[in-house]
Structures are given as structure tokens and as C-alpha cells.
């Protein structure tokens, strides 16, 4: 029933204005509904998208909540760093980042960062 349908992520924000500024200034995204006061809706590639809504629960998840597929993780990390995005470093069994980027056994690469609300976001590249 749902396998052929598009999906969209939903992210929490404690402060929508702060989130709007982060997504615009750091990631180059502007909401589809700039006049809305209770949520921000963003459209990304291939008709995908996500919604940011206000809640005091923002930043409490300890897992990746949304990820973008890119053709070159290293180049995207460099571009986002130039805009002030700080990448996370991890050292877990089976996952270690170097300069903010993890290379997986299958040759894919990924990097993680936090948005202004403490949500864990990622960029991913297939091998």
C-alpha cells in the first residue's frame, strides 16, 4: 500500500525562527510556507521534503532523523563547513569518522551534524 508513495520527514524545533535561520543560512533552504507561524515546510530533490514544527521535545532524539543523498560527501562537508556547520565525530565499533566523514565497508560515506534545535541530520553518499 505505501511502498510506492513518497515519504517526508518531520522534525521538531523549540524555536521556529531559529530553525528557519539555520535551514536558510546554513543549508540554503527556504520554506514553502514562509508566512506560517506554526510549522515550516521544505521541498527537496525528487519531490521529497520535510516539515519542522514547534515543540519542547526538540533535540531529545539520539538518532539520525533525516538525511540527504549527495554525489560527493567530502565536497558537501567542505561547503557546509564554510557556512558554519559543525560535523560530529564518532568512534563506535564499525563506525569511525575521520575529519567528520565515515567510510563504510561497502564504500559509501556519511557525515552527521546537528541543526539549531539539536536534531541529528546526515549527508550520505553511495559507493
From TrEMBL:
Annotated Glyoxalase/fosfomycin resistance/dioxygenase domain residues: 9-119
CDD domains linked to this entry: VOC
Superkingdom of origin: Bacteria
Pfam families reported for this sequence: Glyoxalase
InterPro entries, sorted: Glyas_Bleomycin-R_OHBP_Dase, Glyas_Fos-R_dOase_dom
Protein name: VOC family protein
Organism: Paenarthrobacter ureafaciens
Amino acid at each position: 500500500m505505501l511502498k510506492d508513495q513518497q515519504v517526508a520527514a518531520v522534525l521538531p524545533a523549540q524555536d521556529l525562527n531559529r530553525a528557519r535561520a539555520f535551514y536558510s543560512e546554513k543549508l540554503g533552504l527556504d520554506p514553502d510556507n514562509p508566512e506560517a507561524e506554526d510549522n515550516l515546510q521544505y521541498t527537496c530533490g525528487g519531490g521529497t521534503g520535510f516539515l519542522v514544527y514547534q515543540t519542547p521535545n526538540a533535540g531529545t532524539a539520539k538518532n539520525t532523523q533525516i538525511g540527504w543523498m549527495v554525489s560527493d560527501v567530502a565536497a558537501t562537508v567542505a561547503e557546509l563547513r564554510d557556512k558554519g556547520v559543525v560535523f560530529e565525530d564518532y568512534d563506535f565499533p564499525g563506525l569511525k569518522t575521520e575529519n567528520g566523514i565515515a567510510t563504510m565497508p561497502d564504500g559509501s560515506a556519511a557525515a552527521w551534524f546537528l541543526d539549531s534545535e539539536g536534531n541529528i541530520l546526515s549527508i550520505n553518499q553511495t559507493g
